[in-house]
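$ run holo --ligand "flavin-adenine dinucleotide" --emit tokens
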Amino acid sequence: MEQTTLHDVEPSDYDVIIAGSGAGGLLTALALTANGKRVLVVEKESCLGGVWHGYWVDGFRVDHGLHVITRVTRGAFTRFMRTYLPTLPRFVLHEGWYFRVHDRVGTIPTSVGQTLQWPLTGLRGRLGLARIGAKIKTMKLEEMKRYKDITFLEFMKRNNATNQVILDVMQSAIYMAAGVGIDEASAYEALRTLKDTDKESSKLETIKKLLFGSTEYDEGYVIGGMQYLVEEVVKAINGAYLLNAPVRRITERDGRVRSITVGDTVIEHDCVVSNIPLWEMPRIVDSDRQETIDFFKRWSHMRITRGVTLWLGLDEVVVGDRKSRVIVHPTPNRWIVSVSSFDPSCAPAGKELVAIAMIAMEGKTLDEQVDMMKSNGLEKYHPEILEHIEMEHAQISYATRAALVPGQTDLDRPGPRTPVAGLYIVGTDTAGSGVGLQQAANSAQGVIQEILSHESPSL
Ligand SMILES: Cc1cc2nc3c(=O)[nH]c(=O)nc-3n(C[C@H](O)[C@H](O)[C@H](O)COP(=O)(O)OP(=O)(O)OC[C@H]3O[C@@H](n4cnc5c(N)ncnc54)[C@H](O)[C@@H]3O)c2cc1C
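-- output --
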């Protein structure tokens, strides 16, 4: 895909126009290319990728956000990479989750045997964990759906699983996935995350896992970082893109999309995929039909997740392993990963790049949150990191556009279709199970199926 200018755009050169170049938009463009379509991607910012990108700071390559890709071997995102890129990027798996509760550190037990030896609680806590762990691991997806409208904390209480350490560790794990705590996260989404699958396993498989556990980690980092991934995807897309090109209007007439307006220029087209966040759509969609107006108004109230990421370039290798460390106490919990241990090319030779992430705190400035991240917990448990800082860079942003709270689980989202024929929506607030890039890939998959199955006369 090559950059073009508004002046050079000839609408009939493109089968589909994609408004917004976030992960959802680009993955849609990638799959459309594989299906023989040519796309025009229209992006309001000066680079492609939305919150999915990376850049260099003082010799260290940082991503926007601490991106550890989940379900590397079996998720939708990697499936997109495997299916549509000429060569599969190299993912390096992490060595597992290590939760610190005060002075004790433990991984997530994956079998009954491991649970009974879990170092983070006493015997009563372990027995309680074994009971609730077995219940979650053997639960069917259909049963999980019944809990979409209650919080995970409520689910735990209903099951008498109220040991504080277990709740605190769950809190840290769910925070990372749902972007909110267990007192807000939908039990359905939390259960799916903990069961770590979207597919049913056979009874035998589940029992085997409960007895023997599993050492397969399925989360990792990509060699080259997020920017590499975006560049590979962009290279593989057939079409053109516009930068610094805000879509101001998407116009519907007689129930069908007719055009998009970029700046002051109207581009007529009858197939548009919008990756613009749903909260912006009511002021962008120009329609004279109440059904359309109501649709976009209804879905514009999604609550988003916000994350803070602190990147620290260290003057020597201090952490040096591929563990995902979570400091559960003191709250707020935070997640520490040595990114250069996965991909040394993101730091100068002999140096280390460490990322620390947490959920953004309401009412605190970025500087205040950075101070908390550096002092609270880190000073006590990882003082060596703080002694070697050579580069420091902080970011704050939405991580996914729909927090996984009751009322906006994947079952509650609008899906790829809109009331406007030829207008589809994609992105992490529109549809798709999973979080982050998995969710973006799942939403793109939904759009592709819709577009290819019917509706647009030009397709
Ligand atoms: C802090 C952080 C940590 C993360 N960690 C992980 C992780 O560990 N694992 C993981 O899988 N994912 C992670 N992600 C999540 C993942 O990067 C995002 O969920 C995903 O990239 C969002 O994709 P989206 O399609 O919803 O698009 P967005 O990124 O929201 O893209 C929307 C695009 O539309 C453009 N746009 C908006 N309005 C207009 C307009 N009017 N005209 C034209 N263009 C417009 C925007 O500029 C943007 O490019 C993380 C993200 C962040 C920020």
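-- notes --
Residues 19-24, 42-45, 50-52, 64-70, 246-247, 275-277, 280, 307, 309, 397, 399-401, 427-428, 436-438, 440 surround flavin-adenine dinucleotide (CB under 6 Å).
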